[in-house]
Structures are given as structure tokens and as C-alpha cells.
Amino acid sequence: MSHSLTNALPPQARHLVPEARPPRPPALPIPLPPRRTTRMVARRYELGARLGSGGMGVVWSGYDLLLDRVVALKELTGDRGRAAALQEARAAARITHHGVVRVIDVVLASHGRDWIVMELLPGRCLGTVVREDGPLDPARVRDLGIRLLEALSAVHSSGLVHGDVKPANVHLCDDGRVVITDFGLAQELSGDCAVITGIAEGSPSVLAPESIAEGRFGTASDLYALGVTLYMAATGESPFEETTPAAARRIGPLHAVIEALMHPDPQHRVSAPAALVALRRSRTIAPARRLSPEAALAAR
Ligand SMILES: Nc1ncnc2c1ncn2[C@@H]1O[C@H](COP(=O)(O)OP(=O)(O)OP(=O)(O)O)[C@@H](O)[C@H]1O
Fold first, then answer.
1. Where is the composition biased (Pro residues) (predicted)?
2. Residue with the nearest Cα to atom 4 of ligand 1?
């Protein structure tokens, strides 16, 4: 286009002619902000922060855009396959109990992965709490034991063995809820006792002797793992190492019930109802600071 033609245009239209535009200033080297890429799962769940991970997957916070609420998503990264993902989700979904994580949905093959959508539990797992804040006081361990026994009883009444009770799979929520998570190793109970798997999967530090020796998992092996978990919660140490004087002091009032839960013979191990009675009876366990001077005198 010639300048004569540009001049022929009305002034308000002259900018439309490329040659007539003033020269552009050179581009400034201003870095652009990173583009926010929202990772979506099944075009419904927006992925948020990474909350934790384990041998079988990564757990993320997320947002359910359809129901307008926060959720947690477990991205299954292991090579266990779809059947195992469904088995894990179905196991947890079978149980309705405030002490068991609520499964909301399963998404298969999104981003090439399988996902379990759960309620988002605010707080930290027991393992992290003990690592960061130190062992729990005996009254809190007693309360933890009662809640976990109630939750495990619900799992067992649903015909399942959890198979991996340990501090990393117990969530201490900010509102005081105690919740069992991770049903990745849950198994169907055959009869009212043990199942034979042949492979002792699970964390070696909490496996019952019969699971290690014979691959036998049952309600009793979950109780053994609970005993180990309570010991770790009360002392910050493993029951398989020599008990330090500090650990012995901390475990004092809970010693009998933990020992009964960790009986090496599943036939002689304490049952969940009996352990519940023993823990509920041990009301004398209370942190000293909670006692008024009068109550402390009366307790002598
Ligand atoms: N619903 C949830 N809400 C919040 N955090 C969670 C939830 N589920 C799991 N987590 C966190 O993510 C971590 C890993 O989860 P999970 O134990 O299910 O993974 P995993 O791969 O099966 O682990 P493992 O190696 O024990 O089998 C947990 O320790 C916990 O801190």
C-alpha cells in the first residue's frame, strides 16, 4: 500500500495500514509467568498438592469440580495392575466407619494411571507425628488403641483383613478423628480366621510371626500389627530392639495390653473385644497436668 493511499484514508483508519504504523519498540526481556497447567483426572478432579507417597502410589489433594468439594487422589504407580487397584478401592468402599478412610470413586486409565478418589483427611499420619513431635503420651496412646480396635473390628466384620496396619497407615486428623488408610494389601477373610496367601507382603516391621513363617494373615495378624503400632506410638522405638529405660517408662501402663496383642502365637493372642475391655479399664492413665491438685491427692 502506498503512502498516497494511506493519506487518502481518514485519520482514524490510518493505523490499519501496516506501513503507516509507528515502528514497534524492541521487545523487552521480561520473563513471562509460568503457564498454570491444571492437571485434571477424568475431566472432573483437579490435582493439587502432593500429600505423600508409598510403595504403591502417590497421594494428592484434589478438587471435585462436579460436586464442588475437596478430595484426595491416590495415583497408583506400582505395577500391581488394574485388578489390584479395583481390589484396594473395593475393600475400603465395603466398610462404612468413621475410623476407615471413605472411598468416593475409582478412575481407570487417566493419564495412563489408575486412581482411587477418597475423602481428604486433614492432619498427618501417625508415623510423621511421632517423627516430628516425639512419642505420644500414654493417655493418647490408650485412646488411639481404643479407636483403632473399633475401626479394625469394623474391617473384620466386613469380612476383610487389613494386612498392613502400621504408623504410616494411621491418620491422625486435625479434628481428632483417627482413620485407617491404605487397603492395598487387604484380603478377604475365609471363614472367621486366616487366609493363606503364600507371600508375606507388607511391612516386615509389623508382620506377625505366622505371616512371616507361613504367609498366614487373619484378624489376629492385624491385632499383632496394632500392638507394634501402639508400642511405636508410645515410645518412638521399635519393639524388636532392646527396650531403653525411657521406652520402658513410657510403655508402663500399656505394657500388658501391648504384650497381649503381640503374643507370638495367634491362638493365644488377645481378641479385639478383650483388648478393648483392657484398654477401657485402664482409666488411671492420664497425663499428670490434667489432674487438679485435689484429684492428684485423691489418686494417691
Ligand atoms: N485420604 C487421604 N488424605 C490425606 N492424606 C492421605 C490420604 N491417604 C493417604 N494419605 C497420605 O499419603 C501417604 C501414602 O498413602 P498410602 O499409604 O495409601 O500409599 P501406599 O503407596 O499404599 O503406601 P505403602 O507403601 O504403605 O503401601 C500416607 O502415609 C498419608 O500420609
1. 23-34
2. 121
Name the fold adopted by 40-118. Answer: Phosphorylase Kinase; domain 1 (3.30.200)
Complex-level ipTM: 0.93
What is the CATH topology of the domain spanning 123-299? Transferase(Phosphotransferase); domain 1 (1.10.510)
| Average of per-residue pLDDT values in the chain | 85
> Which residue among 169, 175, 177 is best mutated to probe the pocket of ligand 1, counting the most ligand atoms within 8 A of its Cβ?
169
Axis-axis angle for helices 219-235, 138-157 (nearest 10)? 160
Pocket (CB within 6 angstroms of ligand 1): 51-57, 59, 72, 74, 101, 118-121, 125, 168-169, 181-182, 184
pTM, two decimal places: 0.81
